[in-house]
Design brief:
The structure is a homodimer of 458-residue chains. Chain A is of the alpha/beta class and 458 residues long. Helix content of chain A is 37%, strand content 19%. Chain A folds into two domains: 266 residues, Alpha-Beta Barrel (nicotinate phosphoribosyltransferase); 171 residues, Aldolase class I (TIM Barrel), CATH 3.20.20. Chain A has a seven-stranded antiparallel β-sheet with strand order 13-12-1-5-3-17-18.
């Protein structure tokens, strides 16, 4: 009988978690003895719908990948047998056997706020290495940044109330649920229902009961009493299994040790007000109301504008899938190549997909209160005002960066967001934050375009 | 210096890849000595936007999980120290230490077409076990089913042309990319760019070069020649780096060994026609045109309705994120409980979220050509016409099901789709396939509602 496959990522062979063309190109570069040092930059050409900024996340997992990537003997055997590699030499497979990433990486620290067109990560390495790592880097940065950004919008809408991640069941697989827990925390969430994420990351695990608990006992009151018996200091009860207001009255019977009630369905505005009245009438003003069920930034904004007495929001599907904009279009483009000791700027001209050449840096300009005014993208080494955002994180294959804790990363994000002026971050009709290309960069682009077009378009 | 964390799923402790409330409820059940056998059913209440059916996928990974779930000593230590478990007994943690899933599972085989409201998986186990596995099961089934369904729509639009998965870079993390490769293959794709997925699943790995290859050589023609030199039998060239028609002419210089050209940007309809002319003028009628770049079922349908001479589609972001409908709302609900040897039907009444009680089965009725006419949902053991869709897959913790290969699963899906009449599967304005609840089930529901409301709503 066949054994079911887990499809978990192969920790001993992360090199093959990539697109095939990265490896065919690698073989091609190898056979042509191309050992040029190439620089690729990861950026987002256009922000997704309804987004006016990005909260960068995923760098830690990218660094883990870059410092652990290798090819197992079994994986190499598999590649050897692929028709695509029929002409590849033994030396190439020998090369893969000893493969490590030996390049240098600059990146924006996690939690940094960034904008369209800005390089977020810059990889300089022998071209084969820089090429192979593209797919994984994009995947890990695209997703975590997507979710940290979405979560920051939800947290913004919640105006200081707690927001917690309830999304694993609707994430794109259980692993995505763990990454979502991390990145939504970076965006400002207070905790997650995902136990493994809490365990690995040292963040709060939250949650008490589901409808099935209530249904499993002989009646609702009994189920509430039985829960309180075992968890006297953490009694948060789900009250909508049968009828929400009756549920609130049953919960109130617990008395002053009751910590909170959760409403997961129905008209949350009306129900939260009615439930508050039931609780207050019993002298339970301290009991918190938690709301969940298809919440997002717009619904939370709406509830709070109508004075819903909700203390805390559990957000799932909409946050972990970034439902209104479920993909971030990060790209990874060759911008420079060193050939015979000379740096050659690189760009492509595909319609609507033109890229800027050269190693770049992003300079952020703030006013005297620290509020962000505009960013300038210049080439590396250009003299430009502002705080450079890309920092060295890997030098010659080794991490050269003190990894911040997830609490520090969240602090960076909240601090960055606090300094992003209101018009650039409001939920609807936000203004476009000014990102300027330096004159020097525009000149380099024109030169490169002229040179490359002269060569290629004939 | 801190080490970067991978956040890969813990193979030795999959039990904690769940929501905290599953474990607090488990502790509660344990302390109350609740050893009732419970039955939960996984179903989808409403289909997502633009969907008229589901292609079921993810069962194999669900079975892998159910037969491997356990709790490591370290994870148990972590749980012991959580404030939530302050009152839990040593015996509970001892129980977790020896935890295995010992239940019985019925499921629709992967590749089956299913509809809203139908139980897709049914888990019968001691209530603690059935409860803990909820989160992971939902996550793995929701995502793979979401993508198999989306891919089947794209494959349908492609009318027999190849569709391949290019999506890992935009999937919700690298692991989601692997699951997407699997589930999009089930929905009818011909291969994937994801090397690890191809390796693990035995499906075709596809892809040749990216823009960076073209840019890395001294000019486009040189880059094409250099690629052909190393891969003479697999020369598929990306021609839009600088100018697509010039690219086509450069590619044509390879001569009759050229296998294909890929266009990744611009007006694919116009460009594919112009490129076809360039190739045909050189006698290269056999050279295939591959299109990629933000494709989905609607764009492919549109291209083919306008006679775009495209032979094969590479689809990424839109497929692996199911971008128009990026979440499947699978739920997992308690439907029955055995208490003192008696089966008690269970349901909840939360507004808009009412569930049907009892162990259920889905009976599919087809006409004499095998075309699906309607499904009937009845209770287990009810005498109903039609082919039962839920099959035993795990009995008392052991797999009792011969796992099909992924090719067999794809065959099931394509066969099911072929027997789903056109009105129920067309891309737009599809009709709702008739799913009927049996009279017996309606009666059981009314009885359960009366009984439970009598107890709970006072």
């Amino acid at each position: 009988m066949n054994k079911p496959k887990s499809l978990f990522l192969p920790e001993d062979s992360l090199g093959i978690v990539t697109d095939l063309y990265q490896l065919t190109m690698a073989a091609g570069y190898f056979e042509h003895r191309m050992q040029d040092i190439a620089t690729f930059e990861l950026s987002v050409r256009h922000l997704p719908k309804n987004r006016s900024y990005l909260v960068i996340a995923g760098l830690e997992q990218a660094l883990q990948y870059l410092t652990h990537i290798k090819f197992s003997a079994e994986a190499i055997k598999f590649l050897r047998e692929l028709p695509a590699f029929k002409q590849a030499s033994n030396e190439f497979f020998e090369y893969l056997k000893n493969f490590i990433f030996s390049g240098t990486v600059y990146a924006m620290p996690e939690g940094t706020i960034a904008f369209a067109g800005e390089p977020l990560i810059r990889v300089t390495a022998p071209i084969i290495e820089a090429q192979i790592v593209e797919t994984y880097l994009l995947s890990i940065i695209n997703y975590q940044t997507l979710i940290a950004t979405k979560s920051s919008r939800i947290v913004y809408a919640a105006k200081g109330r707690d927001v917690v991640d309830f999304g694993t069941r609707r994430a794109h697989g259980p692993q995505a649920g763990v990454l979502a827990a991390r990145s939504s925390f970076i965006g400002g969430c207070n905790g997650t229902s995902n136990v493994f994420a809490a365990y690995e990351l040292g963040i709060s695990a939250v949650g008490t009961i589901a409808h099935s608990w209530v249904m499993a006992f002989k009646n609702e009151q009994d189920s509430f009493n039985k829960f309180h018996e075992i968890f006297p200091d953490n009694t948060i009860l789900l009250i909508d299994t049968y009828d929400t207001l009756t549920g609130a009255r049953h919960a109130a019977k617990i008395g002053e040790k009751l910590k909170g009630v959760r409403i997961d369905s129905g008209d949350l505005l009306k129900l939260s007000k009615d439930v508050r009245k039931v609780l207050d009438a019993e002298g339970l003003q301290h009991v918190k109301i938690i709301a969940s069920g298809d919440l997002n930034e717009d619904r939370i904004d709406d509830l709070l504008k109508n004075s819903a007495p909700i203390d805390s929001f559990g957000v799932g599907t909409e946050m972990v899938t970034s439902k209104d904009a479920p993909a971030l279009g990060g790209i990874y483009k060759l911008v420079e190549q060193e050939h015979d000791g000379k740096s050659i700027p690189m760009m492509k001209f595909s319609e609507d997909k033109i890229t800027y050449p050269c190693k770049k840096q992003v300079y952020r300009n703030s006013d005297k209160y620290g509020n962000f005014m505009h960013d300038i993208i210049g080439f590396e080494g250009e003299e430009i005002e502002g705080k450079p955002l890309l920092m060295p994180v890997i030098k010659y294959g080794k991490i050269c960066y003190n990894l911040p804790t997830i609490y520090e990363i969240q602090r960076t994000a909240l601090d960055n967001l606090a300094h992003l002026p209101e018009p650039f971050k409001r939920l609807k009709n936000a203004q476009t934050y000014p990102v300027i290309k330096s004159e020097g960069l525009e000149t380099k682009r024109k030169e490169a375009e002229k040179m490359l077009k002269g060569i290629n378009v004939t």
